[in-house]
Amino acid sequence: MIVTCAAILAVDFPAFPRRLAKAEAYGLGLMDVGVGSFVAAGGFARGLQSTRRRDGSHGARASPAAALVREGKRAGVLLALGLSRTVLTWAIGYQQHVGEYGVHWNFFVTLAAVHLCSLPVRSMGTWMVGMVGAALLGVHDYCLRHRSWELWALAEGRGEGIVEANKEGLASLLGYCAIHVLSHWAARLVSGKRAGGGKAPATTDALPRLAALTAAAWAACVLLRGDAGTETISRRSCNAAYVLVVMLLNLQAWLGFAAALALSWRHAQRIPTLLREWDAGSLSLFLVANLATGAVNTSLDTLHASAARARTVLLLYVLFLCAVAAALHARSK
Question: pTM of this prediction?
Fold first, then answer.
């Protein structure tokens, strides 16, 4: 999250390496991975919460109606943020790359839609969640490849109407839903009770499962790469290649974190405070980062800033976000 928030401002400076920026149609850069990883992290967190509620270790389970209302409110907040961002960018004449999500669509709208689409899977069994995720990925890939969704989404022209205006966001939505649901399923699979009567961390049990999932993701990516009929990676359409690469990279990261935690649990059971603060308020911080990025871009000519000035601004920007994270964390206590 820290890297993602830093990158959304850093990309506006010429000192930022272009190879790390988002690809226009096909390809993969650091910022392309960040978008999918945000969705994957949300799915993984939801999966862990679901497992804890089923085990009774996360408080009493709410009724289906109450849970639906609660999650609907959260999706409504995300949608309101997305629409507010669209209106605000128009009002101040802020630059907007419509080829990324569409004219009215943005990442917050995608998050709201993913949130709503993933609601039914939270009451399903673990393997059913995995089947739903695979089905979403298969249907999406079929539509992209055989129903010309990808050609439609990536075409330069744009017809009339609300659908045409937001074709990129609509065409990629099922892919992001697949990332979220598959991450939810992965969390369900790897989360387990503590081994050794509670003396060892739960990550000890999770390591073999995470390793197996990572190996499976590697195999899927290799097989997909060998399929001559499969498109190259495209974040804009969120095709199968992109979904699998995002899953692979995140599974590798989760495996590394779990291994480090399992190896060091006797000596370092505390997670650094800064990471806890960022983790606790990730969505709020992402919103603040977007607002701060807009403020910097409207008050500073980032396109012609020197490398030294870019580093100074970015340092102050990240320090500001860290201060906001600390304030939000302190307020939530």
Answer: 0.85
